[in-house]
Each structure stands twice: as C-alpha cells, then as structure tokens.
Amino acid sequence: MTVDELQKETPKPAKLGFVGWLRWFWRTLTSMKTALVLLFLFALASIPGSLVPQRSVEPDKVALIYQNDPALAEWYDRFYLFDVFTAPWFAAIYLLLFVSLIGCVLPRTGTYLKELRRKPPTAPKNLSRLPYHARAEGELDVEEAARRLRKLRFRVATGPGWVSAEKGYLRETGNLLFHVALLGLLVAVGMGSLFGYRGNVLVVEGDGFANTVAAYDRYMPGSRVSAESLEPFSFTLKDFQASYQLGGDKRGQELDYTAKLSVNDSPQSPARDYDLKVNEPLEIDGTQTYLIGHGYAPVFRVTDGKGQIAFDGPVPCLIESKPTLTSGCVVKVPDAQPEQLGFLLQFLPTSVQLTDGSHVSAFPGQLNPQAKIVGAFSGDLGVRSGKPQSVYQLAPDDVMKKLKPLAMGSKAPPPLAVGQSFDLPEKLGKIEFTGVKEWMTLQIAHDPGRMPALLASALATVALVMSLMIRRRRVFVRITDGAVDVGGLTRTEGSGTGFGEEFADIVKALSAGEKDVR
Fold this sequence. Notes:
Elements: H1 3-9, H2 17-29, H3 32-51, H4 59-68, H5 70-78, H6 88-117, E1 132-136, H7 142-151, E2 155-159, E3 162-167, H8 170-195, E4 197-204, E5 208-210, E6 218-221, E7 234-244, E8 254-264, E9 272-277, E10 282-284, E11 287-304, E12 309-314, E13 318-321, E14 326-333, E15 341-348, E16 351-353, E17 359-361, E18 370-378, H9 397-400, E19 404-408, E20 416-417, E21 421-423, E22 429-446, H10 450-469, E23 473-480, E24 483-490, H11 499-511
Antiparallel strand pairs: 1-24, 2-3, 3-23, 4-6, 4-22, 5-7, 7-8, 8-9, 10-11, 11-12, 11-22, 13-14, 14-15, 15-18, 16-17, 18-19, 18-20, 21-22, 23-24
Helix pairs in contact: 3-6, 4-5, 6-8, 8-10
C-alpha cells in the first residue's frame, strides 16, 4: 500500500464546529478550576480599590491627585482606577464568575440529590483490607448491629450476614451551600447596583443638605433608580468637633470627631438632633449617611478695587498634610472690579515660625490658625469660558500663564491671623481672613442588597466550616459463624485524622451490652 493510499484510508479528525466550540467553552467556563481562577481574579481586581482613592469614598483625595499630578490622574481615570467597582473589566470578571458558579452548582445539585437517595454499598467480603479493622466482642446479629449503628446516626443498609453504614453527608451539603452563598452574595451586589444609589457631598458648618440629586457633589444611581426614589430627608451641620492626642509619640493623632446635625426625616417631620460619627451612620428608611472625612474651611472676605465686597464666605481646603491638616485653598473672585482676582492660600491650623522665617503647622487642631498667601493674581480666570473648572484649581495652565501675579514669593505678606487683611498692589482691593469653619465629607448610600449580602456571607461562613469539619465515612459489619468483623474508611481525602478514635468508639458500641448502647 502506498503512502497516498494510506493517507486516503486514514480517517481525519472531525472538526468541532460552532456547536462543539460552544460546548467546549461552556465546559471550560463551568469547571471548578475556572471558578477558582475567576474567584482569585475577582479578589485581585479588588486590590486597586483599596490602594487607589475611590471617587465614591474619598473625592477630596482624588481631587488632590488631579491637582498634584494631572498626567497620572488621567491614566488612573483611563483604566477606571478611581472607580474600580464600577469598571467594565471588574463587571466582566463579576459576570463570568456568576455564570461559572451557576454552571458548577446546578450539576452538583443534581448529583447530590441522587447521592442522598442512594443506599450505602454492599459490605466488602474481606474487611481486613480496609484502613480500619477490628473484631467486636459478644454475640451480635444483623438487625441488632443495624439498630446500634442507627443510634449513632449512620444511614444503614443490610444484607445476608452484613451491615453497611455511612455518615457525613452534610460535608457535601456545606460545600454546595458555600457555592450557593457565593451566588447569593453576587446577586446581593447586583441588587445594590441596580436598585441602590450612592453619592458624596461636602458640607460646611452652618450649611445644610437636602437629599436631592442637585445637592450632591457626585451622584451615582443604579440603572433602576430615579430622582423620585430618594428619601426626602434633610439636615443642617450645626457644629463639627474634633479631638486630637496632645502629647506622646502619637501627638496630633485623631481621637474622635463628631458632626452635630439637626435632622428632618421628611419635610413634614420636626427637627431632631443627631451626633454623626465614624462607623455610626445616620439611617433613615434604609438610607445610610456615613461620615468619611473632615477638614478646614477658612472664611475670607475680598473687597475689590471699587470698594465693593466681591466675595465673603468659607472656602473648603484640600488637605496637603494629614498629620498637621495643613491645607491648600483656592479663592476665585470673578465678580471683582476692575479686574478679576484669584488667590492661592495655605491654611495652617497651628502656625509656628521656623528659624529660617518660614511658617508651618505643628498640630492639626486650631491653636493658632493662620492663612498664608502663596499667590495673588489678577486677570481673566476663564470661569465664563464655558469650560468646566475644578474648584480646587485656580485656573488651567494655559489661563494661569496669562494672569498677572500681584503677590508671590518675597512679595507675599506674612501669614494672616484671624481679623488681619492684606491690601493688594495697584489698589486692586484687599483680602481679609475673618474666621475658621470646618467641613465634613459624607457618603450617602441606599443599598437594598446590604442585608442579603450579610446573610449570604454568614451562610458562606457556616457552610465553609461544615465542609472543612465534617468527614464522610463508612462502616461495614460482617457476621460469619458468630464472629463480628468491623471495618471502616473515610471517603474524604486527607480527612482520616481523628477517625481512629471514632472507629474505636463504634466498635465499642457494637460490642457493648444493651444497657451501654447510647
């Protein structure tokens, strides 16, 4: 036979085709190995959410990154690192894991139900070959051995001269419940994404907040949430109190801070006082308000060149140094005449002068508050150009180049104490430091999946304990010519430790008299 004839007679492997590839993909996706890989990727994908500030939790830190390193912030935003848990790549892992778990759970459920209905197998003929073997003392028949094993909570099957018993079915129950709990946890997260909402807002002492979409600094609704879904509550920040460690190695460390609120649960309800603290949220009809941060909002009054008050109010400042709460402030005065004015300032809660003449803050509390003018500028700030600008940035780089510096570097005045002012050159006006207020940042969240997620997590913990602690084991008894042979083995790999003692107790129970059997 020639080579060509042999090649013609040799059957070619069949192609998978479209349906075949679909089956292969489904088997691969729903395998236990794939589920474990996806679970690992799910945990790995959550790490950036802990390392990089998230817009939903720390919007002030996100703004600070944009201010200090705009290029890095742009790359972070391009890969959704400021919004990890709403990123498309995170959602892809989430959905694949969800489908994979369903594919794992459904066939295992069917197999488990069949296993529950199956009787223990016939006892082997030679029990001495099993890992555990012993001979029970005394006379015993098949019915009595079966009865004693049932009292030990074994499932029993009998035959001519033998008894087969099995125990530990709850191990697979725990394994199955663990996967079901993971599915429940994913469903709960999905419920929160669809029917919940989150938002961030910064509130200064003396100001209020009403739970409407327009009042949020950042609002992230679920796809099934409308503006009418928001609970109609409101509150006013009456006072913010913070305490710090005064001495020792941890000097300046925050001990506690409290926001004193006046809350209206609805437009018709009377006001009530509430002390909002970290990990003690305000909850109204399933909506939680969390205190997540605070800082200073020094109050400035700016008089323009025509003697008119062009700006008067608190300015929330971004924290530049957490240990001392040194903060950077931006004041924009687009209504000043004859020219618009802008100020870059640094707020020092406890200002001290160093030997070189510079001023820094030595403590986060307000022991000697001062405001240092880093730069004062005049010119068009670009706020009326139609392009959005950050409130924490005086102007974009192209606009900053066109502004006229009025006081910078050596021309800047000494830090201003409360009540002091600085007259701008060329009679363009003055800026006065009139007081200090504090601000707080809040996260307001409504998550209908919060309680289901808690229950699913608790179920997963219990199920994991069951699958780890419970052993699947079998016991066989053969009665031949009055001799009672007992054999045992565990069906779970690596779980034989500890079964020796239990097997000895089983043999003792089979050997015991009627009064000793429990």
